[in-house]
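User: Please fill in residues for this 146-position structure.
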């Protein structure tokens, strides 16, 4: 059983690098779900949470650099700032979750469902990841035909 499944029609930005990172985030969330659902050792849940936290921060950083490189951040600075805020809030929630777990607090499935819903709407959202994905794609196309 998995919590979230990749679907090209819904999630793909047509930029391989971005899609690969999003797929990895789904995989980590599913690993966490599975570890909790099947009652795996707390240590494994903790390891997965730390990796999810690390990878979330890495992906958001990479995405924000790409937004600069493709011109999206310059063309719509408010879109960029909003996007950055969303990243910051979500990354803070993941860190909070990791801390709670480290302090021995129980993590509920609702929290994982929240993370799933957030990733779903953020990655599929036209004015979120699909929006700058479009810019990156145009840039890649222009580069290809030079
Ligand atoms: Fe994003
Ligand atoms: Fe993303």
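Assistant: Residues filled in for all 146 positions:
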């Amino acid at each position: 059983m998995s919590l979230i499944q990749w679907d090209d029609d819904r999630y793909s930005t047509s930029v391989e690098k971005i899609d690969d990172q999003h797929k990895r985030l789904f995989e980590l969330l599913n690993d966490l779900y599975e570890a909790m659902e099947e009652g795996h050792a707390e240590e494994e849940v903790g390891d997965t949470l730390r990796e999810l936290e690390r990878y979330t921060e890495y992906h958001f950083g990479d995405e924000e650099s790409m937004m600069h490189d493709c011109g999206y951040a310059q063309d719509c600075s408010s879109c960029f700032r909003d996007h950055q805020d969303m990243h910051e809030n979500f990354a803070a929630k993941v860190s909070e979750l990791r801390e709670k777990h480290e302090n021995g607090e129980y993590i509920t499935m609702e929290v994982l469902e929240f993370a799933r819903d957030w990733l779903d709407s953020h990655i599929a959202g036209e004015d979120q990841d699909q929006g700058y994905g479009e810019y990156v794609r145009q840039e890649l196309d222009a580069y290809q035909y030079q």
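For context: Residues 22, 59, 63, 123, 129 surround fe (ii) ion (ligand 2) (CB under 6 Å).
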